[in-house]
């Protein structure tokens, strides 16, 4: 699961005009991976490449209790919610932000091999959709394209920025699926992942600056008519 995680951001932005901004939601949707790849750089969490460990990728995510346990994800979700509460001084964006962060663990539970935990420890869970490539691909495409269509239906603004965003995301995902597999885990892999998150978040910031929720547009028009 890569771009499928951003489906939660699109849905949240479309569902409520009081949701955090789109780029903030993009950070929230991938927050635990932002932290995970940062932690791997400094050795707090661990991964390795094991060819054939799943049908779709060779990544053995064998130690990540601080980010990819349910408890760890919830803690990062609460931290994100606190940021949203301070930033917008409203509980609604905080609650929305929390569930966007939490959605990451739920989607990983469906796709990952058993490498997730509830609160750290040795018992690991995961439904393993990565071993069924076309099912995993279909799910990811359905999530991102469905949520993107919902976002577009609930917002107004120039069409080019969101089309560029979804195009870049699909290209990145295609490279992830069909490009060469990594041969080793190390700083190059971790920094590449972080760079990919940064690129789509910056484009999402452009989209967020050029599109508005339809309810915001309606309210603005109504205020002018008064």
What's the shape?
globular
Percent in strands: 5-15%
Category from helices, strands and their pairing: mainly alpha
**Largest sheet features:** 2 strands, antiparallel
Distance between the termini: 48 Å
Order of helices and strands: HHHEEHHHHEHHEH
What's the gyration radius in Å? 18 Å
Largest sheet, spatial ordering of strands = 1-2
- The averaged pLDDT comes out at 94
Helical amount: 55-70%
Total helices: the number is: 10
Number of strands: 4
Low-confidence stretches: 219-226
Give a verbal description of the structure.
Helices cover 66% and strands 6% of the residues. Helix 1 (7-15) packs parallel to helix 7, helix 2 (22-29) packs antiparallel against helix 9 (187-210) and helix 8 (160-178) runs antiparallel to helix 9. By secondary structure, the protein is mainly alpha-helical. The chain has ten helices and four strands, in the order αααββααααβααβα.
What is this structure, in a nutshell?
The chain has about 230 residues and is mainly alpha-helical. It has helices spanning about 5-15, 20-30, 30-40, 65-70, 70-90, 90-110, 135-155, 160-180, 185-210, 215-225, and strands at about 45-50, 60-65, 155, 210-215. The strands form 2 sheets. It has a two-stranded antiparallel sheet. It has a two-stranded antiparallel sheet with strand order 3-4.
Keywords:
mainly alpha; 10 helices; globular; about 230 residues; about 5% strand; about 65% helix
Sequence-ordered SSE layout with sheet pairings:
Layout: H1 7-15, H2 22-29, H3 31-42, E1 46-49, E2 59-63, H4 65-68, H5 70-88, H6 91-111, H7 133-154, E3 155-156, H8 160-178, H9 187-210, E4 212-213, H10 214-225
Helix pairs in contact: 1-2, 1-7, 2-9, 3-9, 5-6, 8-9
């Amino acid at each position: 699961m890569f771009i499928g995680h951003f489906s939660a951001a699109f849905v949240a932005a479309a569902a409520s005009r009081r949701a955090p901004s789109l780029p903030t939601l993009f950070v929230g949707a991938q927050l635990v991976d932002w932290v995970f790849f940062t932690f791997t750089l400094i050795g707090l969490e661990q991964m390795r490449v094991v060819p054939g460990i799943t049908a779709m990728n060779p990544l053995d995510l064998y130690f990540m209790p601080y980010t990819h346990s349910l408890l760890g994800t919830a803690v990062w979700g609460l931290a994100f919610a606190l940021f949203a509460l301070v930033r917008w001084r409203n509980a609604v964006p905080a609650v929305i932000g929390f569930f966007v962060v939490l959605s990451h663990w739920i989607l990983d539970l469906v796709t990952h091999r058993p490498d997730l935990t509830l609160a750290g420890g040795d018992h690991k869970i995961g439904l393993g959709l990565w071993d069924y490539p076309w099912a995993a691909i279909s799910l990811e495409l359905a999530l991102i394209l469905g949520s993107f269509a919902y976002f577009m239906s609930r917002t107004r603004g120039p069409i080019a920025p969101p089309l560029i965003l979804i195009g870049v995301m699909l290209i990145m995902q295609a490279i992830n699926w069909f490009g060469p597999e990594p041969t080793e885990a190390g700083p190059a892999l971790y920094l590449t992942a972080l760079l990919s998150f940064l690129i789509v978040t910056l484009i999402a910031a452009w989209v967020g600056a050029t599109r508005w929720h339809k309810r915001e547009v309606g309210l603005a028009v109504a205020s002018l008519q008064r």
